[in-house]
Amino acid sequence: PPPPPAPTPAGGGELLFSLLGELRLDSHEPLLRELPSVAPGTTPCPADVGAAVDLRAFVGAVGASAAANPLLCILAERLSSSAVPSELDDESAYQLVHHCLLLDLVTRALAADPELAAAVYARARGTVHATEGWWRPLGIFELAKLKTVEMTLERFVEHRRAGNLPANFGHIGLPFNILEAVMQDLKLGFFTNAAAGLALSLASPGMGSAGAPGRGATLSGDRRRAVRMHMPLARQWRDLYVSWNLAFTTAYPDLPTRYGAPLLAPCVLGAPPEEFMFHRVLALHTHMCLYVLRRSSEHAARADEAQPTAAAAAAAVASSEVAQLASDERRRTLAALWGDINLDAAWRYERRLRLAPLVWAARLRFSSGMAARRVPYPASLILPPPARAERPRTKARGLRL
User: Fold this and answer.
1) What is the 3-state secondary structure of the chain?
2) What is the DSSP track for 282-310?
3) pLDDT at position 46
4) pLDDT of residue 299
5) Are 320 and 340 in contact (CB under 8 A)?
6) Torsion angle, CA of 21/22/28/30, rounded to 10 degrees?
7) What is the Cα–Cα distance from 9 to 11, expressed in whole angstroms?
8) Cα–Cα distance, 123 to 117 (Å, whole number)
9) Can you say how many angstroms the Cα of residue 99 is from the centroid of all Cα atoms in its chain?
10) CA–CA dist 270, 69 (Å, integer)
11) What is the pTM assigned to this prediction?
């Protein structure tokens, strides 16, 4: 498991406690007792929550985990010489760090204890679904994403309790989950990032790579019973997934989503490759519950202030926010720059994986009026071809199957 955060005194407990209050988890003592600095057998108070975590050490842990991802390093280098301005002031950064810290602390606790994870999931989900009109400000993508994350967590609960896991766990669900975001990228016009997501979606858990057989999903042998999904070329897949998803979220209006808080938590970003998606889903659900509850509250406030067509007007405003932000020049510039980095990385990943669906499996050969050649790997069905100099030279052949 990822190393624990450094234990040195710092403040901010009230802010973390207020975030837990939004989820109605501020009175859930089984969870509170697992958070740093809360002594066993005592009743937690707001100032206690997270008080044993040094914020500087925590931010350093986030930075160290991000620096281990070569794609994020390339992005940082290009941004340092670009005209894309920063929009994060000190107050926003303070809020973002505490949001990310809460996700990290809660995710560590849920990953360590299957029964606590089941209880917190049921409580957080119940809070969201008991909120009147919680679904109204959400778009189709957000509703679909919440549903798939809930379904995944329900299976986590089931299999962690039973102590067994099908070898094909995630074989369909994970690619489908990625394709949901790919469709949203296409809708917003972020085509290069969408293409990179396609490469991720076609590399499913348990799939083998060139020279390496696949391995089915397993549970860890310790009391955590953590779900482990083995991706082909796992570290490269994880690095590409993190960079692709962080680029995807830049169009969102709320600060924690826009800056990828569920991914930047050190226990997620620094998780072993086989446990990355396990920690990722736990953190994402906590974040999504906060996101939905805040959007519902904002939607209700707008509806109360508006006139006869209140609900319809508020819903229209809410549904258009992501599209409006995606059209912002700064975000489009950032998305184009980041999408190019991810697309290039996806092409390299595809080449290493021998990922040419149908073409590679069937050894398809074809001829056409414009060109006639065998189609070997690394020809791709989902990504642009390499530069002319990189293409393998082959002799013209007739049509053969």
Assistant:
1) CCCCCCECCCCCHHHHHHHHHHCCCCCCHHHHCCCCCCCCCCCCCHHHCCCCECHHHHHHHHHHHHHCCHHHHHHHHHHHCCCCCCCCCHHHHHHHHHHHHHHHHHHHHHHHCHHHHHHHHHHHHHHHHCCCCCCCCCCHHHHHHHHHHHHHHHHHHHHHHHCCCCCCCCCCHHHHHHHHHHHHHHHHCCHHHHHHHHHHHCCCCCCCECCECCCCCEECCCCCCCEECCCCCHHHHHHHHHHHHHHHHHHCCCHHHHCCHHHHCHHHHCCCHHHHHHHHHHHHHHHHHHHHHHHHHHHHHHHHHCCCCHHHHHHHHHHHHHHHHHCCHHHHHHHHHHHHHHHHHHHHHHHHHCCCCCHHHHCCEEECCCCEEECCCCCCCCCCCCCHHHCCCCCCCCCEC
2) HHHHHHHHHHHHHHHHHHHHHHHHS-TTH
3) 53
4) 83
5) no
6) -100
7) 7
8) 10
9) 15
10) 10
11) 0.82
Output the six-digit token pair for 84.
């894309």
Compute CA distances 7 → 47, 53, 251, whole Å: 15, 5, 35
In the prediction, which pLDDT does 17 show?
Answer: 86
> Taking each helix axis from N to C terminus, what angle separates 329-353 and 310-326, rounded to the nearest 10 degrees?
60
Q: What are the distances in angstroms from CA 206 to CA 59, 176, 220, 236, 268?
A: 34, 15, 16, 15, 20
Give me the phi and psi of 165, to 5 degrees please: -150, 125
Cis peptide before 7 (omega within 30 of 0): no
Averaged pLDDT, groups of 10, the chain, 401 residues long: 46 79 92 70 51 81 95 93 74 92 96 98 97 92 94 97 95 93 92 93 86 89 97 95 95 90 95 97 98 90 62 49 64 90 92 56 33 36 46 40 33
The token pair that represents 376 in the structure block: 């070997």
Token look-up 């016009």 returns 189
Q: Which residues contact 394 (CB under 8 A, 6 or more apart)?
A: 373, 374, 376
Q: Which residues contact 344 (CB under 8 A, 6 or more apart)?
A: none
Cβ partners under 8 Å of residue 161, min gap 6: 114, 115, 118
**CA–CA separation, 190 and 254 (whole Å):** 19
CB-facing half-sphere around the CA of 396: CA atoms within 13 A:
6
